[in-house]
Amino acid sequence: MIDILLPSFVLVLIIILMHTYLGIEIIKRQIIFTDIAVGQMAALGTAISLVFFNEKYHFLFSILFAVLTAIIIAYVSKKNKYVEAFIGIFYAFGFSSLFIVLSKSPSGMEHIKELTASDILYVDFKDVFITFFIYLIFLSILYFSKNYKYYEFIYFPVFALTIVHSVSLVGVLVVFTFLIVPAFIGFLVKKEKAFIIGIASGFILSVFAIYLAVKFDFPVGYTITSVLSFFAILLAIIK
């Protein structure tokens, strides 16, 4: 069974590493729901390509919607103190629009389930290698541009592109979980080592969740979200 699950485990580690780095920045900025809004808009772009263009250009539409959303959020966050409310409105718009668009597809509900929480068990090592190189490039861009005056306008498009790729692999809900929960756990345990603690805890809990899902035939994406969220809630109560 380990051989079958190995690509999923490695991919989870890579995604958690990238998303914990981004999640720490998001929590520091107090714009927690940015990723779920961007992810939802990316999913909307995919849905539009599916319904109106027979799924042609779905990555192009997804990237366009996600990057535009991220740039708008970056712009509004500089001038509006109610940015969290604005992001919530953006999410509501994307979520409702997704249902409207997919209502025109005979298999709309199935697509909604896939876009919300995909089954990571179906990935292979090709997905692992592609994700590794994409995220290595993204991390390098963020690291070397950190002191740049217009870093925000680099960070958010890179953030959006990361979300687009991750959503295509694991779905919007799991992306939100990987972005927020490990970073949140890291901050709760020890702020100075939030990155390392977040990666370790996120990976261990995800492996445990995948094991539970396989053993008891639970939906994998929702099990990952449930296990990580439950642990974060428990830790927050104890701390």
TrEMBL record:
Residues annotated as transmembrane: 6-24, 31-53, 59-76, 83-102, 128-144, 156-189, 195-213, 220-238
Signal peptide range: none
Localization per Swiss-Prot or TrEMBL: Cell membrane; Membrane
Pfam families: ABC-3
GO biological process assignments: response to zinc ion; transmembrane transport
GO cellular component terms, semicolon-separated: ATP-binding cassette (ABC) transporter complex
Keywords: Membrane, Transmembrane, Transmembrane helix, Transport
Gene3D superfamilies: ABC transporter involved in vitamin B12 uptake, BtuC
Membrane topology, record value: Multi-pass membrane protein
SUPFAM superfamilies linked to this entry: ABC transporter involved in vitamin B12 uptake, BtuC
Annotated family: Belongs to the ABC-3 integral membrane protein family.
Name by which UniProt lists this protein: Zinc/manganese transport system permease protein
